[in-house]
Amino acid sequence: MIKLSPSILSANFVRLEEELKILEKEGIQYVHIDVMDGMFVPNISIGMPVIKSIRKATNMVLDAHFMIVEPERYIDEFISLGCDIINFHFEATKKHMDIINKIKNANKKVGMTIKPNTSYEEILPFIKYLDLVLVMGVEPGFGGQSFIESSLEKISALRKYIDENNLHCELEIDGGIKIDNVEKVLKAGANVIVVGSDIFEKDDKSAIIKKYNEIFKKF
């Protein structure tokens, strides 16, 4: 099943609860939350108090993407905040299995992300333990970047590996996705689509979500 995961990094935080309600009304299942520490990426974004507030405001799945150095330092806190999917970068830690086991033991879903310059083969030893793999379509850290076309090859290779090994692992793409290029990533095999500015910068957010859903029906 194809899912849209709107990235609230691009949302209007003055009206965040209102915008979350729009997503709910349109049947959105996942909400993408970018957590940046200013070290792993050159930006700082959403922290624990904001996630706590979001959890109180919605029952949608919180798809949390951690762009932080040594994410193992904060796993317990983010579990307690109610994140449903905890997704950390392969490049940010050396304790991959420790993190995976801690998240799984807390009955949460675990994801792993790779940056544009990281080979998809790096995460193959871990993929059988994962609920989700995220391929970055841009360099992580900032919204509004253009999609890196070579990401399509990674998505295709990962989709083939997942299917051939009969793995129950979702395949997510984040970065540079717009209504005019989303079919490319769907054809490559992604099934969780992160979209930020192309939703939240529109005056009629419901209308653009409906357009995405119409495209999803083709796949």
Per-chain topology:
Blueprint: E1 3-6, H1 16-25, E2 30-36, H2 48-57, E3 61-67, H3 75-81, E4 85-89, H4 96-105, E5 109-114, E6 132-136, H5 151-164, E7 170-174, H6 182-188, E8 192-195, H7 197-200, H8 205-216
Parallel strand pairs: 1-8, 2-3, 3-4, 4-5, 5-6, 6-7, 7-8
Overall radius of gyration:
16 Å
CATH class equals Alpha Beta
Structural class: alpha/beta
CATH topology: TIM Barrel
Extended strand count = 8
- In this structure, how is the largest beta sheet organized? 8 strands, parallel
Give the strand content: 15-25%
Silhouette:
globular
Question: Roughly what is the average pLDDT, rounded to an integer?
Answer: 95
> By CATH's scheme, which homologous superfamily applies?
Aldolase class I
Please count the helical segments: 8
Distance from N terminus to C terminus (CA atoms, Å) equals 9 Å
The second-level CATH architecture is Alpha-Beta Barrel
How helical, in percent, are the residues?
25-40%
Low confidence ranges: none
Keywords:
alpha/beta; 8-stranded parallel sheet; 8 strands; 8 helices; TIM Barrel
Describe this structure in words.
With 219 residues, the chain is α/β, with parallel strands linked by helices. It has a single domain (3-216), classed as Aldolase class I (TIM Barrel), CATH 3.20.20. The chain is built from eight helices and eight strands. Helix 5 packs parallel to helix 6 (182-188). The protein is globular, with a radius of gyration of 16 Å.
